[in-house]
Amino acid sequence: MSAEVFSAAAAPRPKRPRTAGSSIRPVVAVLADGTPAYAPVGEVVVVDGALVTCHLCGRSLRSVTAHLKAHGWTKDAYCEAFGLERGQSLEGPQTRKLRAAAFSARLIFDASVREGSAAGRERARAGHLSRDAAAAARGRPIPEQRRRKALSALSTIPPSSIARANSQRARRRLTEVAAAAAARAGYRDIRSQVLARVADGASLAVISREAGLHKDWLSRHLGELDPAAAAAAREALAGRRDAGWGPALRRLGFLDVPSYLRDRHLTRHRTVSAIAAEAGLSHHAVAAALRRHGLERTPHAAKRHAARERAAAVAEGLGFETMADYLACRRAAGWTWRAIAAESGQPPSWLRRQAHLAATLA
Q1: Neighbouring C-beta atoms of residue 238, cutoff 10 Å
Q2: Which of 33, 100, 110, 172 is the most exposed place for a label (fewest CB within 10 A)?
Q3: Angstrom distances, CA of residue 298 to CA of 262, 263, 311, 341
Q4: Separation of first and last alpha carbons in the chain
Q5: CA dihedral 110, 113, 118, 121 (to 10 degrees)
Q6: Do the beta carbons of residue 65 and residue 75 sit within 8 Å?
Q7: Over the stretch 301-339, which tens digit does the pLDDT of each residue have?
């Protein structure tokens, strides 16, 4: 072998220029299972107007759909993993144009393609395709791509318009539910049902349960659906709610429920449980009566009243009007909590609580 031939064979081959399809892209995301993504999740990256970037390897290709076989992936699995819609094309614009032109030719010359296209258009006109798509999508998570499209579309709508549309949709939904409930019970509308059942002695909770709704549904929504029916129901139920208090009021010598509750809870500082035991009613009935008659409920009324009386008695025995005055005087004089406890005969922890209470109320 001559020296010229040997030197030509040994010389390194020149590197081929890197094509667009073999360009290396950085990893932009990592999926939950550790799969790297070389394109943003929920996006189809088009390069130079003709190539689409593969999320799995970062290569720019005319058709990612055909390329997925190299990774052992299917198009459905690829779209689900990277947040793309199932109908999203994974080909560049030029490739799609070529496929459309080829399909147009087949549509003219291939009878089977014409028949299939006609059948598909007929299913679309009849609404079968939309129903099938909705059934197939039921229970499937919304792709990231669709979520971004929806957010982008919503960002162009004024918030006031969105709020108004939501309110109107909620109102229509309430009206439909009320009409269906009345129809199931054999009434013309929800007003007829409510007034008839209230006249029979049923409460709004009972009527709601009979209609298959939440027990508070009518209490929450009847005023919005039919204000006149809501006012009539309130008037009819107002006297009935205090009817169960009659025996206790007669036995204890009171004319009405508000005067009894005011005496027991606000004047004598009885707890709700103690009032319920005395009246022979439930805890819930007493709490509801306090709310209904506009009386403020005091938690632990008996204990808090006893604590106030104890503080007043200790302060009076020490020659002060309140414990706050006594503690302020002694602390200003430099007394320690132990010295104050020794003088007052009360635990230091109790004295600290009194000081904290005085500071809170100040």
Answers
A1: 10
A2: 33
A3: 12, 13, 19, 30
A4: 109
A5: -140
A6: yes
A7: 889 899 899 999 999 999 999 999 999 999 999 999 999
